[in-house]
Amino acid sequence: MKADPATQLRLLDLQAVDSNLDRLAVRRRDLPELAVIAEHTKTVDSLKADIVRVETEISDLARAQRKLDDEIDLVRARADRDRRRVDSGQVSGVRELENLQSELASLARRQGVLEDEALEKMEAVETLDGRLAALAAERDRVQAEVDVAAARRDEAFAEIDAQAAERRRERERLAPGLPAPLVTLYEKIRSTSNGVGAARLVRRRCEGCHLELSGADLREVAAAAADEVVRCEECRRILVRTAESGL
């Protein structure tokens, strides 16, 4: 393939633009804020799940507490009714009086048990309320960090995208001025060589693979016509000769 030396040098300009675009893409992909957002979002989701579980526990306890309160009211009403019968003096039989007194004692014990259970439920709800408040506060704190990281990410994206747009415009100005076959070869090599399709030969070293050419390879490159498109024997990238090549 033939291309005059000036055209080959412009190919290096195209490579510089493409390398810049690749670096911008890597920078965009590897922004530290993205890792922070991903990690903290998982934490927020976990905290939200914990909050739902605690809220469910509180709801279950509240329902159980209401059931206990209703049962306590029933026991208290039964005891009040029996007490009124005893206090009214209407119970004349000794056996009936003993039965009522025994039932009052049993109802008092039952009421005490129910009230203890209700108190336990109340204390458990208070503990869970504290846990819920702590979880909500932690969720809000971590979410705030996510929001800050997202704002920084968006700011960085805007800056990177603006630079990438400028590089793409520069590429659109450069590429049409190069021979299509040369650009096709360059693109083919670039796609399989870590984004580098053309490299400068500097002091007998290929800047693509960073290896020094052997004596035989160097003599072959030196003997090639100035408009000959030469390739590095090691990495097969297009090798562009300059005044610094050491030929």
From TrEMBL:
Keyword Coiled coil: yes
Span of domain C4-type zinc ribbon: 205-239
Classification via Gene3D superfamilies: 1.10.287.1490
Coiled coil feature spans: 37-71, 97-168
Keywords, alphabetical: Coiled coil
InterPro entries associated with the record: CT398_CC_hairpin (IPR056003), Oxidative_Scav/Glycosyltrans (IPR052376), Zf-RING_7 (IPR003743)
Keyword Magnesium belongs to the record: no
One Pfam family here: Zn_ribbon_9
Domain of life: Bacteria
Domain CT398-like coiled coil hairpin: 14-193
PANTHER family membership: PHOSPHOLIPASE C-BETA-2-RELATED, SCAVENGER RECEPTOR CLASS A MEMBER 3
Protein name: C4-type zinc ribbon domain-containing protein
Species this chain originates from: Frankia nepalensis
